[in-house]
Amino acid sequence: VVHIGIALVLAIGLTLGLVGCEPLSPPTPVPDRAPSGGWYQLDFTTPKYPDKDADHHGGLDEKLTAFINTATSSVDMAIYQLDLGNVTQALLDAKKRGAMVRIVTDIDESLEDPKENPSFKQLQNAGITVVGGNSNSIMHDKFVVVDKQAVWMGSWNFTTNDTYRYNNNGIQIQSPELAKNYTVTFEKMFLDKKFGPARKPGGTIPRLTIAGVTVENYFAPEDNVSEKIIARLKIAQATIDFMAFSFTDDAIGKTVTDRAKAGVKVRGVFENTGSATQFSEYGQMKQAG
Questions:
Q1: Which residues are within 8 A (CB) of 114 and not within 5 positions of it... i.e. 6 or more apart?
Q2: Measured at the alpha carbon of residue 244, what is the angle toward residues 66 and 104, in degrees to the nearest 5?
Q3: Alpha helices in the chain (DSSP H)
Q4: What pTM did the predictor assign?
Q5: What is the domain class of 1-30+224-289 according to CATH?
Q6: What mean pLDDT value characterizes the chain?
Q7: Which of these, 24, 126, 202, 282, has the minimum number of CB atoms within 10 Å of its CB?
Q8: Is the pLDDT of residue 3 over 80?
Q9: Pairing of the two strands 100-106 and 129-133
């Protein structure tokens, strides 16, 4: 999770970027590209329906490829899913340029998936080490660190579906200090082979200042991210806007509902899939108005 100023960018947990969403109240349309600062660039996918291969261009895959192409010394990638040819080739090219390329992924979802395994096999065949882990749960991270100077993160998996058929987001942030946090977390998985609850807290700086802006940065599960989100929500005075692929945390749901009862304007978007189950916060929030 990265908390920038008063905005929550939820890269882990309440994942931004949705498909087939049901709004609690109509959200304001979001442009396909938000304004960038000198130290960050935020982008969104723009899926078109009906889906056509001819429309599969100009997406986040090309932006990530360009990001990786800037690497001169290192690329560290933690990714849940990967099947994009151009991203895979960018990693291979970085290796050819002499950059150290290291990959962490989910052992079940990616390394053992026939659709995605070819991408990882290509990387392994080129001498790039791919570490798969977290067989008891999910290695759900989606980030890339380039030259220990800049980070790519977001809701987006590096797949054709996530790029051109689903709603997702990606943000690039130029900051050696933030990059260090992600490198430390990456190496807990890549070097120490520690995933999920076995990945202990420590080594990261949760509160940073980038270009004069306060940034808070947390990792799940070791940093108790839901507690950080609840603490921020509790001090909301005017508005709370959220989008979540999966929203089943009762404590967060209760906090949002309580703030709505206190007069805070709340708008939310849920993914259809799973929202009708007893575990989703959707039904309770809809009932609460």
A1: none
A2: 45
A3: 60-68, 85-96, 117-125, 160-164, 176-190, 225-234, 250-261, 282-288
A4: 0.87
A5: alpha beta
A6: 88
A7: 202
A8: no
A9: parallel
